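Q: How do we represent a protein-ligand complex in a form that can be generated cell by cell?
A: Start from the inputs.
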Amino acid sequence: MSWFKRENADLTSAPAPEGEDAERRVRTDGLWVKCLGCRQAIWKADLEANLNVCPKCGYHFGMDAQERVASLLEPGYELVDQGLRSTDPLNFTDIKPYKLRLEQGRRQTGLDDAILNAVGDLGPIPVVLSVMEYAFAGGSMGAVVGETIARAVDRSLAGRKPLIIVTASGGARMQEGIVSLLQMAKISSGLAQMDDKRIPYICVLTHPTYGGVTASFAMLGDLNVAEPGALIGFAGPRVIEQTIRQKLPEGFQRSEFLLEKGFLDAVMSRKELKQYLIRALEFMQVPA
Ligand SMILES: [Zn+2]
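Then emit the C-alpha cells for the protein with zinc ion bound:
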C-alpha cells in the first residue's frame, strides 16, 4: 500500500523503514493516487498531465490557483494585485487564533490569501482572471479576497477587458464577521458597473462553491459555467434537510442538477473549458 498516497494518519505512525526499503519508500511514496470517482489507481504524473482530471472516469480533482491560471492563460501572463494581507480586524479566535490560520494558509499555498489575480491572454483575447484558492482557509471570502476581486474588476473597467472569475469557496469568512459580508455588496456593485459599460464577465464555478460567494458574484456572470460534478449552493444539503425535514433528491446541488434547473448556463469539462471561454468571449465582444 506504500505506493498510494497515505490518507490514514495511523499509517504515518508506523515505524520508519530502514536501509534499501526506506530508499524505495521515499522514491515511490505519493506517485499514485486513488481516484475518488472510479476508485482506480492513477499515476500522479498522468493525472497532472490531464489537468487533474481522471483519465479513466473523468472525475475532476481540485486544482490550485496557480495551476488554474497556467491552464487558462497563454505563457507570459502576469500575476498582479499580490501582497494584500488581512489585518484580523476583529482580533478573532475560535479553536485557534485567526492570525495563526492565516499563517498556515500562507505556508500551505504560497499565497497571501484565498485569491490570485492575473492579466494575460486567453487564446487571442486579453483578459483579467481572478482565481479563488480553496486550500487557503476553505477559499473563504474576507476583506482581502473582496478587495483583490474588486481590483480585478477595476482592471477590467480601466482596460475594457473581459473578466473571468474562477470560484471555489465555502462562503464568507466568519473570522472577519460583517467585514466579510460587505464584500458581497462591494464586488456586486463593481460588476454592475461592468454591466453598464457592456464589458463581459464570466464566472467559472468549481467544486465547491457555497455561501456568500454563490449569493453574490458567482451567480452574476453574463455566463455562469460550472465544472462537472461540482457542488454549488448557498447552505449545504444537511442544513437544508434538517430545515425542511425532507429527503433531498439525487444529485442535489451538483452542477448537472443545477443546469437542469436553470441555475447555470453550462457544465463544461476542464479540458474543454478554455476553448469554450474563448468562443463565448468572441461571441460577446467588448464594444469599442
Ligand atoms: Zn477515476
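The two ends are 59 Å apart (CA to CA). Residues 1-61 form one domain.
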